[in-house]
Write a structure and sequence with these properties.
The complex is a heterodimer of chains A (106) and B (482).
Chain A lengths: L9 H21 L3 H25 L4 H31 L13
Chain B lengths: L8 H6 L1 H19 L7 H18 L4 E3 L4 E3 L1 H27 L6 H18 L3 H19 L6 H32 L4 H10 L5 H19 L7 H8 L2 H7 L2 H17 L4 H23 L5 H21 L3 H29 L14 H4 L1 H15 L5 H15 L3 H27 L4 H4 L6 H19 L2 H10 L2
Antiparallel strand pairs in B: 1-2
Helix pairs in contact in B: 2-3, 2-5, 3-4, 4-5, 4-11, 4-12, 4-15, 4-21, 4-22, 5-6, 5-12, 6-7, 6-12, 7-9, 7-10, 8-12, 9-12, 10-11, 10-14, 11-15, 12-15, 13-14, 13-19, 14-15, 14-18, 14-19, 15-17, 15-18, 15-21, 15-22, 17-19, 17-21, 18-19, 18-21
The chains are: A mainly alpha (106), B mainly alpha (482).
Chain lengths: 106, 482
């Protein structure tokens, strides 16, 4: 039996982030509730953060950590605006099913 | 060592437009809270004056790399900054009547427009992927709110929701690509990425390819390039008409600036891999936009599909991957900005309260009731077709010339065929305006107010100037693309 690695290999983190990102994409495409769709986007952003931090660790440089803070701040601003938009949609339509929000067309 | 981090005066002058616009937007929000109701009309003048000062500073900005390589204040940055600010100016003039009519005369509208423009200015001058992301988000978050500005209108809600969800989805793709570029090259600075790829010490060329693809997907969403164009018709149809005009111009132009910078500068050494993709996407975007526009009966939705098609033409110029191609893209975006904002301003004026008259048939007989307005609409439609003496003609001419210079013969031929298809649906509006008898929709159309006339005539004059004397804007664009 080969000896266990002393630390978690970089590739494992990257694989995890890729899985998280794919789950986010799938959730965005398959889920029908607006809040869940929005949470899927947040999951994708968290996968991005994990990738930044992994590479930052790999490259022994600190800037990747700072980028992940930028991403978090922007995600928070986006969440504030996004939830407000979702609230107005709910107020006007009393539904959070994304398929029912489709009045635009000819 | 520490002294190096203190920005110089030249660096501050370089971002003076962003500083002025941010301060003006904050001032507007502050005054909105502090002042009594009924004294609001001055807010749009704060926006107009600050935009005027910002344009002046962008034209006189000292060129160079600023803030530790974060920003590149170069010709391209200045061209796109002036472009989005002039577009913003026209939108501010064209919006105030609309807002008063919809009982939404709130000054945060102007603050949001200014914030959105600040984001686009940062995108245009960013020399670094994270900076581009921040600029993109400043621009997008403000536009999400603008798209749903009339919050009791279900169409506005739906437009804002779709724009927000798909915009954030696209941003996540873009960021994931940025993260992988950072991992593969060790930097997010465009120049460093370029040298790292050239030196070949990036052991993971395929990783960079995947990262570039993710970034392209993210930007293609923002540009409404096929196959990621699905959100655009709903968003542009549902948003308030002046905002639709703004969103088809400002954020798109800034996204093209980012696209040109990333792909022709940072990833230029991989051009043999991304050029075929651009070729296909440009063709698909033109086809999807033009073919879908043929069947539309709602003029806003038709202009939305036409804006998809026009993004396709600009992608042809980017696919040419040359200095003349970039210059042609910039000139086209300028011509398209004036034309489209003018057309959307007329649509906003014609739609009346609650955007009641937005069917193409409603324009019947406009030439008999208000010949001047019909004439202006004609100028814009002819420019969208690309008829000589309008800016759209020289825009298309330069794009297809750049494509031919880069041996993209088939793309040029198919692009020209697309322009011919497009002529059909633009001419249909002309026929409705000039050949049909006026109905009740044109009967009670009020005369445009002075502010609206500034926006409409200003756009029309610029469209004609770009079509008759294209030289000075083309010179600006050519200098910027070097």
């Amino acid at each position: 039996m080969p000896p266990l690695p002393t630390s978690v290999p970089i590739a494992w983190y990257l694989t995890l982030s890729a899985i998280l990102f794919s789950l986010g994409v799938l959730g965005f495409i398959l889920r029908r509730n607006i809040i869940t769709v929005f949470m899927s986007i947040e999951l994708m952003l968290n996968a991005v953060n994990l990738t930044f931090i992994t590479f930052s660790y790999m490259l022994k440089r600190v800037d990747g950590h700072i980028f992940s803070f930028f991403v978090m701040v922007v995600a928070a601003a986006e969440a504030a605006v996004g939830l407000a938009i979702i609230l107005t949609v709910f107020k006007n339509r009393q539904t959070l099913e994304i398929d029912e929000v489709s009045s635009l067309k000819n | 060592m520490l002294a190096n981090f203190i920005p110089t005066t030249a660096e501050y002058l370089g971002i003076m437009p962003e500083i002025i616009l941010t301060l003006a937007a904050v001032l507007i929000i502050f005054l909105e809270a502090a002042m009594k109701p009924g004294r609001k009309p001055m807010m749009q003048w704060i926006a107009v004056i600050s935009l005027g000062f910002a344009i002046f500073h962008a034209l006189h900005a000292p060129e160079g790399i600023a803030f530790q390589g974060m920003l590149a204040i170069d010709g391209m940055a200045n061209f796109f900054r002036v472009l989005v600010m002039v577009a913003g100016l026209l939108v501010v003039f064209g919006s105030s009547d609309y807002l008063t009519r919809e009982n939404a005369d709130a000054s945060e509208y102007y603050a949001l427009v200014l914030f959105s423009i600040v984001g686009q200015c940062i995108m245009a001058s960013a020399n670094e992927l994270i900076m581009m992301f921040i600029g993109l988000e400043i621009s997008s978050i403000a536009s999400y709110v603008l798209a749903g500005f009339l919050r009791d209108d279900p169409r506005n809600n739906e437009s804002a929701l779709k724009y927000f969800l798909l915009g954030s989805f696209a941003t996540a793709f873009l960021l994931y690509g940025v993260a992988w570029i950072y991992g593969a090259t060790g930097s997010t600075n465009l120049a460093t990425i370029h040298t790292s790829l050239l030196s070949g010490d990036t052991g993971h060329a395929s990783l960079v390819g995947i990262a570039a693809a993710l970034i392209f997907v993210g930007l293609a969403f923002k540009l409404s390039a096929a196959p990621f164009q699905g959100w655009a018709p709903d968003v542009y149809q549902g948003a308030p008409a002046p905002v639709s005009g703004f969103m088809t111009v400002g954020p798109k132009a800034a996204a093209f600036a980012v696209l040109i910078r990333i792909f022709t500068l940072a990833l230029g050494s991989m051009s043999d891999r991304w050029l075929p993709i651009f070729w296909g996407v440009a063709l698909a975007t033109m086809l999807v936009g033009n073919l879908a526009a043929l069947w539309q009966t709602n003029i806003k939705r038709m202009l939305a599909y036409s804006s998809i098609a026009h993004a396709g033409y600009v992608l042809v110029a980017v696919a040419a991957n040359s200095g003349t191609g970039s210059a042609a893209a910039m000139f086209y975006l300028a011509a398209y900005a004036f034309t489209n904002i003018g057309a959307f301003t007329i649509v906003a004026h014609f739609a009346r309260k609650g955007e009641k008259y937005v069917a193409i048939e409603d324009l019947a007989g406009l030439s008999q009731k208000q010949p001047a307005l019909a004439a202006m609409m004609t100028v814009f439609l002819l420019s969208l077709i690309g008829v000589p003496l309008t800016g759209g003609f020289f825009g298309k001419f330069y794009i297809f010339k750049a494509a031919l210079d880069s041996n993209l013969v088939w793309l040029t031929v198919l692009g020209l065929l697309n322009s011919a298809i497009a002529a059909y649906y633009y001419l249909r509006i002309l026929v409705v305006m000039y050949m049909k008898e006026p109905g009740e929709s044109t009967d009670n159309l009020p005369v445009a107010s002075p502010l609206l006339q500034v926006a409409i005539f200003g756009s029309a004059i610029m469209t004609l100037v770009l079509g008759i004397l294209p030289g000075w804007v083309l010179d600006f664009a050519t200098r910027a693309s070097q």
